[in-house]
Amino acid sequence: MTVTHTQVTQTVRRPVQRARSGNAGRTLARLAGGILSLLALAYFLVTPGEWTGLLFAWVLLTLIADEFGGWFGYLGVALGALMLSGQSEASWILFPLVGGALTAALMVKHSGGWGVLPFAAALFALPLLGVASLGDKIDPALTLPAEPAFLQTALTAMLIGLGISLVRQVFLWARDLSRKQRLKADAKAALATGEAGL
């Protein structure tokens, strides 16, 4: 049986068309994931509890929300700052320090792939470590960042959040590489079939 050029082209295009048809579903899933992450963050922030729990939820859920789209991450920073500001004396230290560190980490995170994640982690951790070691020397009342619970909570949440990002990006990279290899193999097979039928 003779295989025409049109049949070969259709064979090559089918995987691409299937990939495009899934784009709308992925977009909706990303929107839903980002919105649910922000709703979960709002829930934890309005639920009475220790400041360590609020800090952990803010950092972790903001980083998770960012995985569904960059603006979700920035909205998470803003949401935490708005809802934490003025709640307690600790919040006046938490939201500018942690909010600034989170924003800087997100900006670095958005500048590249998984290779920039260590720099994002450093940019988040260094200001906190600096204020923890020097804050009480600048202002004797600035003792909260030096508490072990503060650094442990913030850094643990950051490492979990960026770890999730690393796993997701490596998975997507491996999936895309496998998909490209399959497309290339399908194209070669279709061309070989077409040449055999001529």
Word description of this protein:
By secondary structure, the protein is mostly helical. It has a single domain (5-197), classed as Orthogonal Bundle (Arp2/3 complex 21 kDa subunit ARPC3). The chain has helices spanning 5-46, 51-66, 70-84, 91-109, 117-138, 148-197. Helix 2 packs parallel to helix 4.
Enumerate the spans where pLDDT stays under 50 for 5 or more consecutive residues.
Answer: none
- Structural class comes to mainly alpha
Radius of gyration, taken over Cα atoms and rounded to an integer in Å? 24 Å
What do we call the CATH topology? Arp2/3 complex 21 kDa subunit ARPC3
Protein name: DUF1097 domain-containing protein
Organism: Deinococcus lacus
Transmembrane segments: 28-46, 58-84, 90-108, 115-134, 154-174
Keywords: Membrane, Transmembrane, Transmembrane helix
Detail the topology: elements first, then pairings.
Layout: H1 5-46, H2 51-66, H3 70-84, H4 91-109, H5 117-138, H6 148-197
Summarize the structure.
The protein has about 200 residues and is mainly α.
